[in-house]
Amino acid sequence: MIAASLVAPGRYEFREDVPRPVLAEGEILVRSRVATLCGSDFPFFVGHHRTAYPAAPGYPVHETMGEVVESRAAGFAVGNLVLAIPSAGGFCQYFAAKGDRSAVLPQWRDDLVLAQPLGCVLKAARRLRPLAGRSAVVVGQGGIGLLWTQLLRAWGAGPIFAVDLNDHRLGIARQIGATETVNPRRDDAAAVIRELTRNQGADVVVEAVGENETQALALELAALGGEVVLFGVPHQPRLDFPMNGFFRKNLTVIASTSTDAPRDFPEAFAMILDGTVQTRPLITHRLPYQQLNEAMTLGADGPNTLAIKVLLSWDA
């Protein structure tokens, strides 16, 4: 089968001699149809996260949809169209996935692939106290940040302040629910949020970048007794933690990763299909699978790119 392998920083190569996965009990074999790129993929692509080269076929792409061609998992039949988190690398013509990490699609729409990251957001958001009437900041307005902005709005938070270095992304944030936007290239984000919250800070702050600087900013922006979600996949192994502010403000810090697919994917499908969460505006580029390198390059330059989510198609 065809599979992409990361052979050096910034370069995938396609191989045609990779064997199809052999299924374990409880797995399905999926023929890829579409994949989108996650912000957590880009540090591996550019070489910020060390990995052995060549990397495992398909690694680290994991936002994937396709058609079941073999099943050893209850509830899945050949021909089902599924959203599935690959057991190994996902940017392959065929990939294996566990049944409990997959869900049958209610209908085919290519943007339903974003139910995978939305499922991750749902899992994290359920750990927050009730959101109705609480002010919120989302630091980072890439694909994940824009999903957070919409979910916070849908669950009653407000006002919602979006922070990003990219004006294009801030424009999308305003369209899909942000009350105000802040670009730290022009303004002191902490000072602006203090002014907008009458010097209180925000009740909920979501960090969706993964840099030490933005993690520390998230803690600074939070109100006394606030909640901070450190959601961006860390780019560094350690955080220079602003312990005094965290301690004095009695903050609650939440970390969350991945998703509970059987619970989260159906809810995410419903939110996308009924328009509660808009995913079509987030897919800014659609490319054939052969342009994986171009897609990764587009997405990796977050502060400057016009890309938000890049969708790659395996269909002819």
Write up what this structure looks like.
This protein is of the alpha/beta class and 316 residues long. 26% of the residues lie in helices and 28% in strands. The protein has 9 helices and 14 strands. The strands form 3 sheets. Strands 3, 4, 5, 6, 13 and 14 form a 6-stranded mixed beta sheet that branches. The protein has a 6-stranded parallel beta sheet with strand order 9-8-7-10-11-12, sandwiched between helices. Helix 7 (243-248) links the parallel strand 11 and strand 12 (252-255). Helix 2 (115-125) packs across helix 3 (143-154) and helix 2 (115-125) crosses helix 8. The longest helix is centred in the C-terminal third of the chain and has 13 residues, at 261-273. The protein is globular and about 60 Å long.
Relevant terms:
9 helices, six-stranded parallel sheet, alpha/beta
Short description:
This protein is of the alpha/beta class. Helix content is 26%, strand content 28%.
CATH class of the largest domain: Alpha Beta
Largest sheet: 6 strands, mixed
Number of helices: 9
How much of the sequence lies in strands comes to: 25-35%
Helix/strand order, N-terminal first: EEEHEEEHEHEHEHEHEHEHEHE
Radius of gyration: 20 Å
User: What is the number of E strands?
Assistant: 14
Q: What would you say the CATH architecture of the largest domain is?
A: Alpha-Beta Complex
The structural class is alpha/beta
Unreliable sequence segments: none
Helix content: 25-40%
* Count of structural domains: 2
CATH superfamily of the largest domain, by name, is Medium-chain alcohol dehydrogenases, catalytic domain
Determine the N-to-C terminus distance: 15 Å
Approximate shape? globular
The name CATH uses for the topology of the largest domain is: Quinone Oxidoreductase, Chain A, domain 1
The whole-number mean of residue pLDDT values reads 96
